[in-house]
Each structure stands twice: as structure tokens, then as C-alpha cells.
Fold this sequence. Notes:
This protein is α+β, with helices and mostly antiparallel strands. It is built from five helices and eleven strands, in the order βαβαβββββαβααβββ.
Amino acid sequence: MARRKTLRIATFNVNGIRPRLPHLLEWLEKEKPDVACLQELKATDAQFPKEAIEAAGYGALWVGQTSWNGVAVLTRDAEPVESRRRLPGERDDTQARYLEVAAHGVMVGCIYLPNGNPQPGPKFDYKLRWFKRLIRHAKTLVDSEHPVLLVGDFNVVPTDFDIYNPKHWRRDALLQPETREAYATLLAQGWTDTLRELYPDEPMFTFWDYFRQHWERDAGLRIDHLLPNPALWPRVRAAGVDRWVRGLEKASDHAPTWIDLDR
């Protein structure tokens, strides 16, 4: 396969990297993203499949956690350079949800934002606190002259257009006014919601719940986002969702979502 002329950066909530490793490797082989940001590893650092990832032609950095959370950044034919491995703001927060690296000339922040359910309650409070920390940190990145991309599972449905039917989700943390307001505040710094900007009239779902045949009915949500800063946005050429991955047997409930940039 000839090397593409653009740089592809993708996000993929694998929902368990060990059981989903064959799917991940198949996707890497077929789509060949230059940078792949993974969320919800559900594995410790020692359990991360480093050898298999390297055999597929990727360098990797990761932050694992037993049974939950966990993020990683894979870089094709290169080694990612670590910038930070936690979001500043709460020293006692040990959840593995943020990894920032330099990869192929772009600073990439890989995000697994808290789900926040059930709400109201402590988990929703934590989600909003984490979001505020992200907004503060993002402010230090957005105006950089260097290209920066925030990417990952934000656990935010930005508008009712980004969900198949909001009726049964009104109480869900992903649709709460506070959640949407935080996302809008982040975008207002100068970040661009690439999928919505390029596809203003298409829902572009990235997640389909396992229950009630959501995948079979295409009853999806858009919660995986790719946000370039003003320095990077002019290089954006395309974006999309690799829906075929969600259709695999025992697949993750997310599909990989990607952005193509001028090199």
C-alpha cells in the first residue's frame, strides 16, 4: 500500500485492549493511521500488548489502570515523545485519562473524559471538575504557533443532532446542559469540531450502545471528537468514521474516528 500523502490521526475507544487486540491490529493493518489515540484500555501498564503493537509497525506510549480507564498513543514507523501523562489540577486524581505526546510534528492530547453517570452524584461532579481542568489546560495549548490536536472520547453529545433520538437519554450525563456548556466553552477558545465543521448536515455517529440493537438500527451517538487548534485547522483535508470496525464480531461499542492533515 502506497504511503498516503496526508497525515492521518485517529481516535479509538477500544473498550478493553486485550480482548479487542485482534480488531485493533486488523484496523491498523487496513487503515494505517499515522497516529492512533486509544482510550479505555482496561489494562495495567504491564498488561499492555507492547510486542504486538511494535510488530504491527507502531511505537507506543501508554498509561494503564487496573480494569478501568487507560489511554495510549501509537505512532506508525516512529516513537511518540511524551509531553505529559496526566491532566494538571488535582494531584490526588489517579485515573488514567490523559496522555499528551509529540507525534509526526503535531502535539496530540489523547483524552478519555469521565462518563459522569449516574447523575446527579459524585461521578457527575468529577466529570465537571475534570472538564474544567481540561479547559484550563487547553487554554495553554490553543494559541500555540505549533499544531495541536485534542482527540478522544469526550463523553459529550454536543447537540440533539448528534444522537439518534435524545428522548430516552435526557437524564444521561452525556446530554446534560452542564456537559454541553463545558464542551461549548472549550470550543470557544478556538478549537474546531472537525466532524461537525466538515459534515454540518450529517449526524456522523461514533458510538452505538450494545443494548436494544443500537448498531443494527444505526441508533448512534457522536461522542468521539477531533479538535485542531487554529495553527492546525488550515491543514485539515478530510475526516471520517471507520464504521466497519463496529460491525466486527464482539466489537467495541465505538468506531475509530479520524482526521487527515496536510503533511
